[in-house]
Amino acid sequence: MGLVKMRLKKNGIGDTVFDSINAVLLLCLMIVTLYPFINTAAVSLNQATDTTLGSTFLWPRKPTWYNYQTIFKDHTIYHAFLISVLRTVIGTVTSVFCTAMLAYTISRKDFVLRKPISMIFVFTMYFSGGLIPVYMLIKNVHLTNSFWVYIIPGLVGAFNLIVIRSSIEGLPESLVESAKMDGANDFTVFIRIILPLSMPAIATVALFVAVGQWNSWFDTFLYNSSKINLSTLQYELMKKLQSANLSIGGSATSAFVNSKNMSSNIVTPTSIRAAITMLATVPILVVYPFLQKYFVKGLTLGGVKE
């Protein structure tokens, strides 16, 4: 008790007020951040016709799984989910590895082309060939109607390359020099020294790439729309959302008016949109805590002192 009183006297009233204001602001920020997600989950689990009446905030007033059942009635969703998982896992692993190798190469001061190659990648961040030239390029290299169109074009990203290169350049050069004096080649140095010590940047880039791969649907629309076995979850959900907006909007209201007994078996664009949002978001939310733990572990591994 005496220690607590001494600490309170030391902190003073000003510090206590400051901490209280910070706590209130952080609480408000947490509420503002979590409310849209909780509200979307409540709408997705609520009867569609009841949602149209409003006042669905944090809990579904008339719980139902029918919104999700409507989505999962189409069995192509399951195969599309598998394709999305495969492209996310394979795309993230290959992209991070290739980007890290290139970042290590252009971070070496004895590499004579490091500046020209870096400038080329930076140039691509500001200027693009456009949609049609990119499509023609993908078509000419025979990547259309192929699973690898999800992987190869995004192997190296300019922004991700800069992030990892900056992390590698911040490492002590003596680590690389001592490893080479012991007989290690560049690939051994990269695998055993550079990768473990660059885990904070690599974990960050992995998160960026994984979210981008998981949420991507436009490349499916451009290159694989004719191949149902290569369709992704996001593309299938997008098609369902479009069909809901076009055909369900008016019919749901009329059905609700004409037959109250059928109101529990009706979906609306709002309910479908909420269910689709949850299906697209939950997998990333499940994976993120594990990646965050790995990120913190990478920070510990990256703590090098000379």
From TrEMBL:
Record carries keyword Transmembrane helix? yes
Localization, per the record, is: Cell membrane
Q: Which residues cross the membrane?
A: 21-38, 77-104, 116-135, 147-168, 189-211, 272-291
Instruction: Name the GO terms of the biological process aspect.
Output: transmembrane transport
Q: What's the superkingdom here?
A: Bacteria
Keywords, alphabetical: Cell membrane, Membrane, Transmembrane, Transmembrane helix, Transport
Q: What is this protein called?
A: Carbohydrate ABC transporter permease
PANTHER family on file: ABC TRANSPORTER PERMEASE PROTEIN MG189-RELATED-RELATED (PTHR43744), POLYGALACTURONAN_RHAMNOGALACTURONAN TRANSPORT SYSTEM PERMEASE PROTEIN YTCP (PTHR43744:SF9)
Report the membrane topology from the UniProt record.
Answer: Multi-pass membrane protein
Q: Name one GO cellular component term.
A: plasma membrane
The family annotation for this protein states: Belongs to the binding-protein-dependent transport system permease family.
Q: Where is the ABC transmembrane type-1 domain?
A: 81-291
